[in-house]
Amino acid sequence: MEKIRYFPDVLKDMKYLQSFLGVVNFAGIFIKDLAKYKKNFRPLLKETESAKWKWEEIHTQRVRELKQVCNNLSKLAIPQDEDELVVYTDANDYRWAAMLMKMTTTGEEPCRYTRVVHRTTSPSVAHQRERILCSLEGI
To answer: Which InterPro entries does the protein's record reference (predicted)?
Structure first.
């Protein structure tokens, strides 16, 4: 997420915006209400000949807010082929979650997180099945 600080507050064209949002999306699962921040950028991503690029103050404000949110996140690690990785999972009758962690000399660093909310009809059997699926999805 360190890369986010190098983006200017005013993005000059659609390619810059797409690059910025790509970096933000990497940490998207950790950003509460990310869609709220991104919704103002949608019209800019649909630029056509009739609708030219028009950067406004609200866009600058959203970029600043997203940069602040990203800078406040815990460090996110990018796993490499040689890294030791651990997947933590949890599930119950209504949801499952998995987190990929990278082992380091100082502890663990989060890499990725995912979760799914579901409805089951047979809690006892479904619960065990979902725990297994959770582990597989996490990997």
So the answer is: DNA/RNA_pol_sf, Rev_trsase/Diguanyl_cyclase, RT_RNaseH_2, Viral_Replic_Matur_Polypro
C-alpha count within 13 angstroms, C-beta hemisphere, residue 135: 6
CA distance 64 to 69: 9
For 11, 53, 108, 130, 139, the CA distances from 8, given in Å and listed in that order, are: 6, 17, 31, 44, 36
pTM (two decimals): 0.63
Q: To the nearest 10°, report the CA torsion of 37, 98, 119, 124.
A: -160
Q: Collect all residues with Cβ–Cβ distance below 8 Å to 69 and sequence separation of at least 6.
A: 31, 37
Q: To which residue do tokens 């649909």 refer?
A: 46
Q: Residue 3's CB: how many other CB atoms inside 10 A?
A: 12
- Model confidence pLDDT, tens digit, residues 83-119: 999 988 887 777 778 888 999 888 888 888 787 776 6
Query: What tokens does 126 get?
Result: 């479904």
